[in-house]
Design a protein that fits this description.
Mean pLDDT: 85
Low-confidence stretches: 191-203, 211-281
EC number: 4.2.2.10
Protein name: pectin lyase
Helix content: under 10%
Number of strands: 33
Keywords: Disulfide bond, Glycoprotein, Lyase
InterPro entries: Pec_lyase, Pectin_lyas_fold, Pectin_lyase_fold/virulence, PEL
Number of helices: 6
Number of domains: 1
Distance between the termini: 7 Å
Enzyme class: lyase
C-alpha cells in the first residue's frame, strides 16, 4: 500500500484514508493483505491520523528496521479492524507515539519487537513529559494486548515535532467506516470538532465491549482538511510526453500522504482560497503548511498521457480526476523466474479457498536470498506480472491531485512522489498485481535526498 523509502521524508501526513485489505491473495492465506505499510528512511517524520485500516494481517504499519535510520510517527485516531495477524510492527530506528486508536478484532495490536521504540500510554498523563499534555488512551475490543517498548526513548525524538503534534486535536478513540460520497473517512470538506481526551484510566488501554466482526458506521470527531468544491471542467492543457518511474521492489501498498519540513511554521497553512480550483486548508499533523498546486488553474486529464504529463512537469498544478484511468494491459506483461515462499506452498496444500502470493525477485537475486517475502524454503516458479503496476506515475513538486466524488480511480498503477509540497486527496488506487509480493506500490515516496511537505487524505486503497 504505502512505502517511504530509504532516503526518508519529513513533514508527511496520511489522514482520513481507507486501507482495505480484502483480497483473494495474501501471505497469510486468509484473504487479509499482509504487506500494508513500510515506513523507512534516514530521517522520516509522519503523522498517521484518522485512518481506517481493515482486513489486514501484518505490517499495518511497519515502521523502521534498519540501523542508522530514524522514523518518527504520531499515530492517532486510527481505527484498526479485522486484523488476523499484527497491526504495528515497530522495529530498530522506529519511534512511535500511539494514542486515541481503536482496535477491534485485532489479533495482535503490535508485534513483539523489543528493538523498537513504542510509546503507548497506560494513563493519560504518561504523555505529559514527552509532549506537554495528556494523551488519549487507546481502546481494545476483542483484541490482543498493546505493549510499549523503550518508551522513554520516544520522547527525545518528538522534540522537533512537538508543536505539530499538539496542533492536531486528538479525539477519543472511536470506530468508524468509509464515507459514501467520497473516498476515505469522513465527508470531504467537513470539519468536525475534535475534543482532546484526558482521563485517569489506570490500565494501559481501555477494554471496550465485545464487537461483532462487521464494519462500523459511527464516525469519530476528527478534524479534517477543508477542500473547496471541484470546479467545472475546463479544456485540458497541451501535453508533453508522459513520464513514469519504475518502482523499487517494495510491498504492495496504497495511501495518501502530506509532509512539511520540521523547521516550518507549526501553524496551519493560511493559503488564499483560489477562485478556480480546489485548495487544501488546515492541513493537519506534520504536513502543516503544504499547499500543493496552490491557486493554479485546475486541469482535467482525459487520457493517460495527459495525466502523466500534468503530474510530472515543472509547473504548479491542481489536477482533478473525474474518471477512472485503466492501466492494466496497457504496457504489456512480463514472465520471469520468481519465488514461491513456504507460506504459499502451505496455502496451496491447505486448499482452504484462499490463495497465497508468490514473489517477484529483486534484480540480481539469482540465489533467492535477497528478496523479502522469499524465505529459505522458497522454490523457483515462473511469475507473470502486469508491467504498468511496476512503473508508477511520477509526481513532482507543487502538485495537488484530487478526485471528484468517487470518480477519481487509478486502476493498475500507483504514484511515486519525487518532489515536495504535494497534496494527494480523494483518489482510489487498486489492482497492483495482487497475486504477487513486490507487484507494485499504491503510493511511494522516493527521492535521492529525502523530501518534505507531502499531504494525503481521504484516499481509498485496495490491493
Amino acid at each position: 500500500m504505502v512505502v517511504i523509502n530509504f532516503s526518508g521524508a519529513t513533514g508527511v501526513t496520511i489522514s482520513n484514508s481507507d486501507f482495505d485489505g480484502n483480497t483473494k491473495f495474501s501471505a497469510s492465506c486468509d484473504g487479509h493483505h499482509y504487506w500494508g505499510f513500510l515506513i523507512l528512511g534516514k530521517k522520516t517524520e509522519l503523522s498517521f491520523i484518522g485512518n481506517y485500516i481493515h482486513h489486514t494481517s501484518g505490517r499495518s504499519p511497519k515502521i523502521g528496521g534498519h540501523d542508522g535510520e530514524t522514523s518518527v510517527v504520531h499515530a492517532a485516531n486510527n481505527y484498526f479492524f479485522e486484523n488476523s495477524g499484527h497491526a504495528f510492527d515497530v522495529a530498530t530506528g522506529g519511534y512511535v507515539l500511539a494514542e486515541g486508536n481503536y482496535f477491534a478484532s485485532v489479533a495482535s495490536p503490535n508485534l513483539d519487537d523489543p528493538t523498537g521504540n513504542f510509546l503507548v500510554p497506560t494513563v493519560a498523563s504518561d504523555c505529559t513529559a514527552a509532549i506537554g499534555r495528556d494523551c488519549a488512551l487507546n481502546v481494545l475490543a476483542d483484541s490482543g494486548k498493546l505493549t510499549g517498548y523503550s518508551q522513554d526513548k520516544v520522547a527525545a525524538q518528538l522534540i522537533d515535532v512537538k508543536k505539530l503534534i499538539n496542533g492536531y486535536k486528538v479525539a477519543a478513540a472511536a470506530k468508524f467506516s468509509a464515507a459514501s460520497s467520497n473516498f476515505g473517512v469522513g465527508e470531504l470538506g467537513s470539519s468536525a470538532p475534535a475534543t482532546s481526551t484526558g482521563g485517569s484510566a489506570d490500565t494501559q488501554q481501555i477494554e471496550a465491549p465485545s464487537v461483532e466482526q462487521t464494519e462500523h458506521t459511527n464516525t469519530p470527531a476528527i478534524t479534517m482538511p477543508t477542500v473547496t468544491k471541484v470546479p467545472t471542467t475546463p479544456k485540458p492543457l497541451t501535453t508533453k510526453p508522459p513520464s513514469t518511474i519504475e518502482t523499487t521492489n517494495a510491498p504492495s501498498t496504497s495511501t495518501t500522504t502530506t509532509a512539511t519540513a520540521p523547521g516550518q511554521s507549526q501553524k496551519p497553512p493560511t493559503t488564499t482560497k483560489p477562485s478556480s480550483g480546489p485548495a487544501n486548508t488546515d492541513v493537519p499533523g506534520f504536513a502543516a503548511g503544504t499547499t500543493g498546486g496552490g491557486n493554479a488553474k485546475p486541469v482535467y486529464p482525459t487520457t493517460v498521457k495527459e495525466l502523466a504529463t500534468y503530474l510530472s512537469d515543472a509547473e504548479p498544478r491542481v489536477i482533478v480526476l473525474n474518471q477512472e484511468f485503466k492501466f492494466i494491459n496497457t504496457e504489456g506483461s512480463t514472465t520471469e523466474s520468481g519465488c514461491r515462499p513456504t507460506n504459499n506452498q502451505q496455502c496451496l496444500a491447505k486448499n482452504n479457498g484462499f490463495k497465497g502470493q508468490d514473489a517477484i525477485l529483486m534484480d540480481g537475486d539469482t540465489s533467492m536470498k535477497q528478496t523479502g517475502g522469499c524465505d529459505s524454503g522458497g522454490i523457483t516458479v515462473d511469475v507473470t506480472y502486469d508491467n504498468a503496476a511496476k512503473a508508477a506515475l511520477a509526481v513532482t513538486s507543487d502538485k495537488t491531485l484530487v478526485g471528484e466524488g468517487t470518480k477519481g480511480v487509478l486502476n493498475g498503477k500507483g504514484l511515486i512522489i519525487t518532489g515536495s509540497n504535494v497534496i494527494v486527496q480523494n483518489i482510489h488506487i487498486t489492482n497492483l498485481n495482487p497475486h504477487l509480493v513486490w507487484g507494485g506500490d499504491g503510493v511511494q515516496r522516493r527521492t535521492p535526498n529525502g523530501c518534505y511537505q507531502l499531504f494525503g487524505s481521504h484516499g481509498s486503497h485496495h490491493q
